[in-house]
Amino acid sequence: MAYEKAIALAPRGSAWRVRNTLASHFRSLGDRRVEVDQLVESLAEQPE
Asked: 1 vs 25, 47, 48, CA distance in Å?
C-alpha cells in the first residue's frame, strides 16, 4: 500500500500526519476500525 510506504519514508516525527490522512480516507470509506487504528497510532507518535 502506498500509505505504508509513505509512513515508512516520512521524516522523523511527521508520520503521524500521514496516519491522520490515512484515517480520514478510511473514514470516507466507512471503515471505522481501520480509521481508529490509524488515529491511535498517530496519537502514540504525536500525543499533542
From this structure: 13, 25, 27
